[in-house]
């Protein structure tokens, strides 16, 4: 795949094209790495349906032929998995930017998506025909496509297996344009959507509470406050549930399969909040409101993980 490279970069292809079994598909202009991979997958699925799988390899000489063969053999052993050729970033020869970029992306991938991978940026990947068909539909035209591939593999229940390979960086990897922040935006978008859903729930909770309090303003506070609180919490929690189910975690399961889990978690979370604030307020000299904020932030992230892995998990 020549993704619209200029003359100064086409030397990468010259040696390969001397081999009779090699040919090139070229984009008229640079459309990004993600588009190049999807073009290649599409061509492969249309012309090599009897083959068992496809291997993608970066064109910058960072992947040794022995490692490519190793990943190919691993795919034959485990055809249902996405095989990643994973590098070791601990060596002194690894550029600092690559070390930091991989650490950041690996941590965020583990914490937000529940995907434990040591090398999230590797371009050496092997996949079966079935997986390739799924990856053909993934969003992303540039480097973010490879990150999206990992997220979609998790969502579709495709196991991810790592194969140790050599770590090669040529000229401090100056040819790479990968940015661990901008090119991993879909990972961060997940927590942003979750945070937005929670903020929306708080707004609805306060708005409904105020409206109901106004509607029952002639009633004693002993009646008005509990009634307003219950109605507001029901409205805000239903909003939060449907937003998380549909837009945040994109669960394929029905309401009947997830709503009980959601409210069990919400109830347990509320009890932990009450207990945590009460315990800390009695034992440390800090304002109870500040304590509640800290406790609820911790529970917020714990709840995110539990909702992702238990409440809305797609098998």
Report on this structure.
- By secondary structure, this protein is mainly α.
- The chain has three domains: 49-180, Spore Coat Polysaccharide Biosynthesis Protein SpsA, Chain A; 188-248; 249-315, no CATH class.
- Helix content is 57%, strand content 6%.
- The chain contains ten helices and four strands; from the N terminus they run H-H-E-H-E-H-E-H-H-E-H-H-H-H.
- Helix 7 packs antiparallel against helix 8 and helix 9 (255-283) packs antiparallel against helix 10 (288-311).
- The longest helix is centred in the middle third of the chain and has 31 residues, at 185-215.
- The radius of gyration is 25 Å and the shape is elongated.
- The model has no long low-confidence stretch (mean pLDDT 82).
Question: How are the SSEs placed, and which strands pair?
Answer:
Blueprint: H1 11-14, H2 33-47, E1 53-56, H3 65-77, E2 82-86, H4 96-113, E3 125-128, H5 129-135, H6 144-155, E4 160-164, H7 185-215, H8 221-248, H9 255-283, H10 288-311
Parallel strand pairs: 2-4
Antiparallel strand pairs: 1-3, 2-3
């Amino acid at each position: 795949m020549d993704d619209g490279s200029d003359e100064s970069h086409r030397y990468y292809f010259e040696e390969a094209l001397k081999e009779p079994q090699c040919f090139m598909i070229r984009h008229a202009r640079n459309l990004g790495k993600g588009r190049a991979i999807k073009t290649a997958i599409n061509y492969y699925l249309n012309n090599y349906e009897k083959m068992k799988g496809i291997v993608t390899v970066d064109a910058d000489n960072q992947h040794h032929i022995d490692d490519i063969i190793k990943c190919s053999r691993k795919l034959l052993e485990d055809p249902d998995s996405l095989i990643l050729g994973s590098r070791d970033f601990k060596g002194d020869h690894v550029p600092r930017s690559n070390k930091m970029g991989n650490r950041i992306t690996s941590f965020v991938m583990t914490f937000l998506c529940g995907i434990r991978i040591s090398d999230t940026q590797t371009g050496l990947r092997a996949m079966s025909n079935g997986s390739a068909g799924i990856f053909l539909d993934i969003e992303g035209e540039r480097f973010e496509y490879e990150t999206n591939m990992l997220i979609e593999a998790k969502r579709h229940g495709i196991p991810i297996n790592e194969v140790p390979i050599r770590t090669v960086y040529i000229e401090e990897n100056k040819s790479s344009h990968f940015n661990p922040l901008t090119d991993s935006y879909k990972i961060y978008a997940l927590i942003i959507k979750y945070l937005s859903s929670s903020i929306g729930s708080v707004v609805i909770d306060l708005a409904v509470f105020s409206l109901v309090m106004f509607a029952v303003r002639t009633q004693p506070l002993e009646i008005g406050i509990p009634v307003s609180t219950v109605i507001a919490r029901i409205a805000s929690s239903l909003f939060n549930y449907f937003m998380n189910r549909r837009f945040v975690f994109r669960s394929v399961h029905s309401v009947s399969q997830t709503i009980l889990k959601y409210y069990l978690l919400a109830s347990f979370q509320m009890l932990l909040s009450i207990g945590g604030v009460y315990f800390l307020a009695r034992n440390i000299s800090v304002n109870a409101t500040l304590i509640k904020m800290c406790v609820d932030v911790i529970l917020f992230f714990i709840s995110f993980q539990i909702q992702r892995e238990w409440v809305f998990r797609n098998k």
